Amino acid sequence: TYDPCAKNVRLNWSSYKGWNGAISYVIFKETAQGWVAVDTIINSYTKLFSVANEDSTAIFIKGISLNGTVAFSNLIKIVKIASQVPSYHYTKVATVQQDAVLIKHYMEVLPYMTELVIERKNGNTFEEIGRVTINGPENEYLDTKEIDVDEASYTYRVSYLDSCGFTVNPANEVTTILAKVNQVNEASMTLNVHWSPYSVFDGGVAHYELYRSINGVYQWPAIFVGSGNQLNFEDQLDENIIMDGKVCYYVVAIEGQNVFGFIEESQSNEVCYVFDPVIYIPNAFTPGGHNPIFFPVINLAEIQHYSMVIFDRWNNVMFTSDDIKIGWDGIMNNGMKAPFGVYGYQINVLDGNGKEIRKMGHVALIRSNIE
Question: How far is CA 340 from the centre of its chain?
Answer without folding.
Answer: 62
